[in-house]
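does this look right to u?? NAP version
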Amino acid sequence: MTKTAIIGASGFVGRHLLKAYRRAHPDTIGTSFSQARADLAPFDIRKPDLASLKLREKGYQAVLVTSAKPNIGYCEQHKEEAYAVNVGGMLELLRQAAGLGLQPIFLSTDYVFDGVTGGYDDDAPTRPGTEYGRQKEAVEKELPRIAANHLVIRLSKIYGVDKGDATLLDDFASSLLAGKPLSVATDQVFSPTFVDDLVASILAIQEKGLRGVVNVCSPEAWSRYDVAAGMAKELGLDPARINAIKLHSLAAMAGRPLNTSMKCSRLAAASKPAFTPLRDQMRRVAANWKPG
Ligand SMILES: NC(=O)c1ccc[n+]([C@@H]2O[C@H](COP(=O)([O-])OP(=O)(O)OC[C@H]3O[C@@H](n4cnc5c(N)ncnc54)[C@H](OP(=O)(O)O)[C@@H]3O)[C@@H](O)[C@H]2O)c1
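got this back:
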């Protein structure tokens, strides 16, 4: 396994990646920012000092950056603060990695697409409608000038199956069981992907030595409404309690792409990725929440 440091290992994706890398290399370096953690090194991407981690000396070959300000509303409302992390600090860090002879690996998003057609493949033209998407696109476009061996891994919605992880399925389960009123878009379509499948795909991408942009997501495209309704059924609740809406009927959702489902031709050509069906995971998450 390529020895890879994780910048942003206190976040959802980063912590799952770090766990996998530490299975092979128990001393794998991971960093955190606002969370003080004994097992992670403190690191602020806005003032990156990668040399201080002495990665080359310790045999690292790659730096995978999961640090970000990924909240779409936050990016819209705090453009400069988000830019300082998502673009300014990110590019400086990726440059430092390349300068140290380490492969820079960046996690991007399906929000770089305009969401008009869905089914976007690795090389589909980007046209983001949100500040978050524009910031991610800016890094995607600059990274080839920084390092020929760079990797951009593009993700759709990533979810876990642990109770209380507050990701897609857990969130719907908790809200539905609490009887909260839910309005969910029928026209927002994406490719929800189990975090362990993402981690396995990233390890396969590294093992195969892929370069450039690689989409990674489950082949299943789901509307957000169908995910919520599926979760309700698994919990034995009536999906009719969920209010079906159009995404752009909510003022706060202006500019958000509708169908960001992706295809993963490069990944499929290089490995045989296994993606867990979302239905199976709904059952698993429902079981977390059922009494007894
Ligand atoms: N999760 C998804 O569904 C999804 C979908 C598409 C793309 N992505 C991309 O995947 C990556 C990981 O996402 P995630 O969901 O795991 O995000 P997350 O849970 O919000 O984690 C963000 C990470 O960034 C760190 N961070 C924030 N500000 C920082 C700073 N100034 N300096 C250094 N680190 C800083 C956080 O550290 P502290 O917590 O210690 O402050 C945390 O480790 C992001 O690039 C995101 O855009 C995620």
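The chain is about 35% helix and 15% strand. idk if thats expected tbh
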